[in-house]
């Protein structure tokens, strides 16, 4: 049996759709809000009492990171569920981590800590190192540097390129790995993906120039103008977002400006039925750029 955590989250929802018909239970802090008709269990990494009943009888745990908090909170969450999984006799954990290009990001601290904790645990592990979602740089740009007119794209991305991954692709890869692992465990054969770490990013990084080109039409070109990190910091602080989120957002932009978010090797095609989904349209859609309303 598979248990997927974080059942109401965007990644889990897409993954659950692909696991329909299998022996799956969905864990969530709000099981009544889980969609898809699969059986649910009450599961909150912050509430130790929920962990043993949620993990009872589970062979394959799909551990979706619960990263929206300060690092000490995330470490405690992930540490608690890993210890509980070991105690419950879970046989294989599939963890959604962060791609290697993100090693310099603030959010990497908790992901790499979790990978090390999983490596020390008594079950098999598969780590899916997820690329940034397309709406991440787009959202940081939209908040920090609204484009002043339809012919200009302003964003605090410098001139660097950024590797991204469609959440749909990440969900397909996650569901594929979880299903194959659980099938093998049920059949008693050798378990695929055990001990593997997969880097998951679209092979083509995006840049300010490529996003501006995607916004352009033959008679309405859009040019990219990078904006300063200081403006992005001021906008993040003024947005009222929790302080840790402002720090993480700035860290993503700093790494982008430094050209450090290019994932040179990707395993994504290996885990998909077709080619990776194009991320540029998702970046564009998340920008709310004036050129989009001009285009109609
Ligand atoms: N690759 C990226 O660009 C990127 C960007 C942002 C975040 N992330 C990470 O990827 C994860 C999945 O992304 P997403 O788009 O699905 O995020 P999302 O839609 O915001 O969902 C947040 C998830 O965190 C779970 N969660 C929060 N607190 C929890 C707790 N105490 N115990 C158990 N689960 C808890 C929620 O589950 P329930 O509410 O159902 O319990 C939900 O699945 C995020 O949680 C975050 O760690 C990645």
Describe this structure in words.
With 296 residues, the chain is an alpha/beta fold. It has a single domain, classed as NAD(P)-binding Rossmann-like Domain (Rossmann fold), CATH 3.40.50.720. 42% of the residues lie in helices and 14% in strands. The chain is built from eleven helices and nine strands. The strands form two sheets. Strands 3-2-1-4-5-6-8 form a seven-stranded parallel β-sheet, with helices on both faces. The site of NADP nicotinamide-adenine-dinucleotide phosphate has 25 residues, from helix 1.
Low-confidence stretches: none
Distance between the termini: 48 Å
Shape: globular
Output the CATH topology.
Rossmann fold
Strand content: 5-15%
Mean pLDDT: 96
- The radius of gyration over CA amounts to 20 Å
- Which strand order do you get reading across the main beta sheet? 3-2-1-4-5-6-8
Instruction: Return the CATH architecture.
Output: 3-Layer(aba) Sandwich
| Oligomerization category of the chains in this entry | single chain
Helix content: 40-55%
Main CATH class: Alpha Beta
Q: How many domains, in number, for the residues?
A: 1
Number of strands: 9
Strand-pairing-aware structural class: alpha/beta
- Tally of separate helices: 11
Hetero compounds: NADP nicotinamide-adenine-dinucleotide phosphate
């Amino acid at each position: 049996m598979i248990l997927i955590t974080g059942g109401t989250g965007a990644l889990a929802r897409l993954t659950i759709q692909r696991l329909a018909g299998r022996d799956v239970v969905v864990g969530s802090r709000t099981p009544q809000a889980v969609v898809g008709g699969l059986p649910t269990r009450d599961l909150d990494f912050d509430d130790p009492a929920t962990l043993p009943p949620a993990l009872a009888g589970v062979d394959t745990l799909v551990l979706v990171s619960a990263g929206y908090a300060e690092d000490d909170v995330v470490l405690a969450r992930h540490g608690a569920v890993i210890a509980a999984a070991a105690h419950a006799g879970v046989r294989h954990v599939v963890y959604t981590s962060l791609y290697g290009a993100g090693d310099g990001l603030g959010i990497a601290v908790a992901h790499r800590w979790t990978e090390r904790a999983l490596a020390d645990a008594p079950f098999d592990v598969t780590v899916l190192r997820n690329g940034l979602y397309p709406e991440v740089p787009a959202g940081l740009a939209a908040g920090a540097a609204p484009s002043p007119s339809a012919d200009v794209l302003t964003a605090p991305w410098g001139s660097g390129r950024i590797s991204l991954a469609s959440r749909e692709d990440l969900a397909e890869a996650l569901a594929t790995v979880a299903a194959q692992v659980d099938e093998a465990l049920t059949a008693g054969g050798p378990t695929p993906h055990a001990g593997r770490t997969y880097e998951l990013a679209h092979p083509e990084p995006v840049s300010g120039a490529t996003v501006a080109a995607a916004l352009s039409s033959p008679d309405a070109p859009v040019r990219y103008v990078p904006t300063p990190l200081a403006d992005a910091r001021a906008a993040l602080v003024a947005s009222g977002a929790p302080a840790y989120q402002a720090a993480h957002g700035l860290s993503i932009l700093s790494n982008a400006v430094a050209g450090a978010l290019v994932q040179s090797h990707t395993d994504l095609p290996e885990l998909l039925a077709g080619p990776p989904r194009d991320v540029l349209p998702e970046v564009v859609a998340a920008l709310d750029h004036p050129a989009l309303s001009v285009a109609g």
